[in-house]
Design a protein that fits this description.
45% of the residues lie in helices and 20% in strands. The chain contains 14 helices and 12 strands.
């Protein structure tokens, strides 16, 4: 099974290599050097959302408007053909990522003002369409898309989304805080669209693999599947938002360079806004201006990368000391790592390890 996964991930890396921010995660997985274990209990505390998705973990057939109404608490869902409506819904989640795969008859989703304020508010929905067509309206902008298209919607704002019959669509729920920690301005993702067959194929292949692993109860592989999907979605979102940013070419280019430096050097304990500015020939003030209006600071982006990496190391079968994990991730010491984990997970690194790793058999 592991060789199958490595082969598929290796084939997918071609799309990521065309992006301005190359993701090196695929090389680690394709070479078999990256394996995680255990379902994290320290996911986003959106228990309502988790309960909603967990109903469909094994795949559920939904027939008729009565069953459709039963899953419509967080938005109004209406069937295009109420008398004959039928679809299959299945879900998957691990760590930060939640997704739902829907295939069947057309529906209209309407997230109204009265639905807002729930646990979905903290997520961006990224929809990948395999077949059928979809029309969405958010912020008064109408979008119409066909197969091999991706659309993003902000779940803390009203929207209408309508699909045709014979739809096949994957709905990803990605925390806004995660995307913002990767340097993205999520406010630009309201009704953003992209046609990219290669990206869609890569994402769908990973989702298919995730469902296979779920059926085989191979929890040990879920961690890097989650990471790979998140990296692909982040790459897609970067393409979206770069096209909407209203700034001159020098500013846009510099912002990408800063993000590349963070991606490549976050484990360097000496990396800082000052060192980044110096390497690019700008002042500290200029660098801040390039990121003006962002919800996440450069310092937080660096820290979030370090915590993400520390999570992965702590979930590996080979136990590293907390001190060595802190050093490898660029923290000043185990105390800094402990404070970062306390802020994100309300627990220590050792507690995180013990609760996210299964005992060796």
């Amino acid at each position: 099974m592991k060789s199958n996964i490595a082969s598929q991930l290796s084939n997918m890396s071609s799309w990521m290599c065309t992006q301005s921010r190359t993701v090196r995660l695929f090389d680690l997985m394709a070479n078999g050097n990256f394996q995680l274990s255990g379902e994290s209990r320290f996911t986003d505390p959106s228990s309502e959302l988790h309960r909603n998705l967990d109903r469909f973990l094994g795949g559920v057939m939904i027939k008729g408007i009565a069953q459709l109404a039963a899953i419509s608490q967080n938005w109004t869902i209406t069937a295009k053909s109420p008398a004959t409506y039928s679809s299959v819904v299945r879900s998957w989640r691990h760590g930060k990522l939640l997704l739902t795969h829907c295939a069947g008859d057309g529906v209209t989703f309407h997230r109204r003002p009265e639905h807002l304020g729930d646990s979905y508010d903290r997520y961006v929905q990224m929809a990948v369409l395999r077949s059928g067509n979809i029309r969405t309206v958010q912020r008064g902008v109408l979008r119409s898309l066909g197969p091999d298209s991706i659309i993003t919607l902000l779940l803390d704002e009203e929207f209408i989304s309508s699909t045709t019959d014979e739809m096949d669509i994957i709905l990803f729920y990605v925390p806004r805080s995660y995307l913002e920690s990767r340097g993205l301005n999520t406010d630009l993702m309201a009704g953003a669209t992209m046609d990219n067959a290669l990206a869609c194929n890569s994402i769908r292949a990973l989702v298919d693999l995730a469902f296979v692993l779920q059926q085989r109860d191979e929890d040990t592989q879920r961690g890097f599947i989650e990471r790979a999907i998140l990296e692909l979605l982040t790459g897609v979102a970067t393409e979206f938002t770069e096209g909407f940013i209203l700034m001159d070419e020098v500013s846009a280019s510099t912002r990408i360079q800063v993000l590349n430096i963070i991606d490549s050097n976050y484990s360097d304990p000496d990396i800082s806004v000052d060192s980044i500015a110096k390497s690019l020939g700008f002042s500290r003030r200029q660098i801040y201006r390039f990121f003006e209006g962002r919800k996440v600071s450069i310092a937080k982006m660096i820290r979030e990368r370090r915590v993400d990496r520390a999570e992965l190391l702590l979930r590996l079968p080979i136990k590293k000391t907390v001190a060595s994990v802190a050093e490898e991730c660029g923290f000043g010491g185990p105390d800094q790592l402990a404070r970062a984990f306390k802020a994100r997970h309300s627990c220590s690194p050792l507690e995180y390890r013990s609760r996210t790793r299964r005992p060796s058999s």
